[in-house]
Amino acid sequence: MGRPPLGNAVRCPRCRLTVRWCVCAVARPVEVPLAVDVLMHHREHFRPTSTGHLIQRALPAARLHLWRRERRLTAEEVRRPGRELWILHPHGHPPPEDADPAAVQAVLLDGVWSEATGMLPDLAGWGRVVGLPMRGESRYWLRAQQAGGRFSTIEALLFLLGTLGLDAARRELELQFELHVYASLRLRGRKELAARFLATSPVAAVWPEFLETLHTPRPLAPGLTPSDPPQASPPSP
Length: 237
Known about the structure:
Distance between the termini: 49 Å
Radius of gyration: 18 Å
Structural class: alpha/beta
Number of helices: 8
Number of domains: 1
Strand content: 5-15%
Number of strands: 5
Helix content: 25-40%
Mean pLDDT: 85
Shape: globular
Largest sheet: 5 strands, parallel
Strand order of the largest sheet: 2-1-4-3-5
Low-confidence stretches: 1-7, 221-237
């Protein structure tokens, strides 16, 4: 028989990081008035770095739908009554300036660039295809971007929250995204790259005590399971 896996190599079922780098101790729910649905390519479902999973964890009301070419979803399965459905995609039109977030359902395509692009034609006629003024550089340092101006799924949502004036929710979700990226870099052993990322991240100022705890090597306590991550006190909002 082979050796049993080390406890710290087991992944947490919530954040999908190993117990050693679990960030669930400072996770806080983000409430938003708009409805959020993630249409995830089935291959993305098995990638621990997927920001679609992070959206579902951070936004309690968000829904996740798996997309498969052989089993295509219908608009009726995804559409929420009483809301205008927006499909976020760089090739879309600008959103209306007077949009009410409480009347909007945002559908996000989650997958690598080629997968997300291939999913879009299946959504023809579902609703308004919306493109956002997404500028700057992506903070999703876990995957190489094939070209400039490409952002992760959760970054598209962050831009949307800012466009709709939901700044408090945007800041909270951004923190959780940044911590997810940082901890994932550390999990991969990219210590120097993670340090450069943290130097320009708001996480360092908001969660210094948790980061100190995270950086302290710790053995897996007896009886600890991936659903019982090391605890830390979250900062005051």
